[in-house]
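queue> pop job 88
queue> type: inverse folding (structure -> sequence)
queue> payload:
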């Protein structure tokens, strides 16, 4: 049953939000016992493909795996393999700059508007007097906006997974950018926005490559999100 439903979701025959029939009907369709049915649903729920709602209007529904959900499994694998954070930074530095160049070469008005809004939000967060959490989340959104709009879905998903591993590490560790680092990041984002607006692909890629070479990239701490 789990394999069949997984395939239907992958083919688009079942879409996010679709409700499953009652248990008795599912048992009859698949010719399985109630315990087997519930175990299959638990497997699909763990994979982020199904959510089981409680209450009168509850029951299993189709969901789409999120980057956050996939990151948990990805980060667990990295931690088991003993991967250092610098390794994740290096991988992201390979993925992001070419996508920055692609974004500059072929951005849409919608992509430019989203990037502008993300940078404006980061600039506003940079002035918030907190422990740096607000700016960290806003800065991550700038990177995610770039990745989503660069025109390569495979690299976008890979980049978002890598970036989310790094972001979750800093959330857990409590390490955040200083006021000076925030101001420097905003200046860099603004310059990048200008290059994208001008359609200067080579300069945008080079600039983002420099942005990715920040001092903390050499962090030798191991990925550790499950201790």
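queue> result:
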């Amino acid at each position: 049953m789990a394999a069949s439903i997984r395939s239907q979701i992958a083919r688009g025959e079942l879409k996010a939000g679709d409700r499953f029939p009652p248990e008795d009907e599912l048992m009859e369709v698949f010719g399985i016992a109630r315990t087997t049915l519930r175990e299959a649903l638990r497997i699909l729920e763990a994979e982020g493909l199904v959510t089981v709602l409680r209450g009168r209007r509850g029951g299993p529904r189709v969901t789409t795996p999120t980057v956050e959900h996939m990151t948990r499994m990805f980060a667990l694998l990295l931690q088991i393999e003993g991967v250092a954070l610098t390794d994740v930074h290096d991988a992201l530095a390979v993925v992001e700059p070419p996508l920055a160049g692609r974004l500059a070469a072929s951005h849409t008005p919608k992509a430019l508007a989203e990037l502008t809004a993300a940078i404006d939000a980061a600039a506003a967060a940079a002035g918030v007097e907190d422990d740096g959490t607000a700016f960290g989340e806003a800065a991550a959104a700038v990177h995610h906006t770039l990745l989503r709009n660069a025109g390569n879905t495979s690299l976008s998903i890979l980049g978002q997974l890598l970036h989310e591993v790094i972001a979750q590490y800093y959330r857990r560790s409590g390490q955040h950018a200083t006021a000076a680092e925030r101001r420097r990041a905003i200046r860099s984002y603004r310059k990048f926005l200008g290059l994208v607006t001008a359609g200067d692909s080579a300069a945008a890629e080079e600039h983002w490559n420099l942005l990715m070479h920040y001092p903390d990239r050499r962090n030798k701490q191991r990925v550790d999100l499950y201790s």
